[in-house]
């Protein structure tokens, strides 16, 4: 009886150490998304759309992707980019498949003239000083809430 008690204690201790070891390793795997400098541009009078910008950084060891954005400031929200066509004319287009990859140990800057969040069908004019509440949806990291102050320039 005494020997089996020691074995049970030993097995329990080994299981606890194994679980703690897995937990310690688990924190370093996968994506680790961080959002910085979110902001939205004030909209001119009568504008039906607006834009939001930010830096999305992935400090993790695995790629992730922004796959959607939600908010109540507009009727629709899409991930867009500015591109130069074959005639050297810059225009805006939705990101293919609404999937923007955030590489492991890398970052993507959403900024004027590049990637941005397009607020389509604004419910009201965006005025300097207010805040746009957005929910970013990531393929692996889930949802992240972001408050983007409306201001001129980032």
Task: Quickly describe the structure.
This protein has 154 residues and is an alpha+beta fold. 16% of the residues lie in helices and 47% in strands. A hairpin with a 3-residue loop joins strand 9 and strand 10.
Describe this structure in words.
The protein is an alpha+beta fold. It has two domains: 1-30; 33-149, PCu(A)C copper chaperone (Immunoglobulin-like, Sandwich), CATH 2.60.40.1890. Helix content is 16%, strand content 47%. It contains one helix and ten strands. It has one helix at 2-26, and strands at residues 33-40, 49-58, 64-71, 74-84, 90-94, 100-102, 106-110, 116-122, 131-138, 142-149. Strand 4 and strand 5 (90-94) form a beta hairpin. The radius of gyration is 22 Å and the shape is globular.
- Count of spatially separate domains: 2
Shape: globular
CATH topology term of the largest domain = Immunoglobulin-like
Strand-residue proportion: over 45%
Rounded mean pLDDT is 88
The helix content, as a percent range, equals 10-25%
**Which CATH class of the largest domain is shown?**
Mainly Beta
Task: Spell out the blueprint of helices and strands.
Layout: H1 2-26, E1 33-40, E2 49-58, E3 64-71, E4 74-84, E5 90-94, E6 100-102, E7 106-110, E8 116-122, E9 131-138, E10 142-149
Antiparallel strand pairs: 1-2, 2-7, 2-8, 3-6, 3-9, 4-5, 4-8, 9-10
């Amino acid at each position: 009886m005494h020997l089996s008690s020691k074995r049970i204690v030993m097995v329990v201790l080994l299981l606890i150490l194994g679980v703690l070891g897995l937990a310690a390793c688990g924190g370093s795997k996968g994506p680790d998304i961080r959002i910085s400098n979110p902001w939205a541009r004030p909209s001119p009078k009568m504008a039906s759309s607006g834009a939001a910008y930010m830096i999305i950084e992935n400090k993790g060891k695995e790629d992730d992707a922004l796959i959607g954005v939600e908010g109540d400031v507009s009727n629709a929200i899409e991930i867009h980019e500015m591109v130069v066509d074959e005639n050297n004319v810059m225009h805006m287009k939705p990101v293919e498949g609404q999937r923007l990859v955030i590489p492991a140990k890398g970052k993507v800057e959403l900024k004027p003239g590049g990637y941005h969040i397009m607020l389509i069908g604004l419910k009201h004019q965006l005025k300097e000083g207010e805040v746009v509440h957005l929910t970013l949806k990531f393929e692996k990291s889930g949802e992240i809430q972001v408050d983007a102050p409306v201001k001129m320039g980032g």
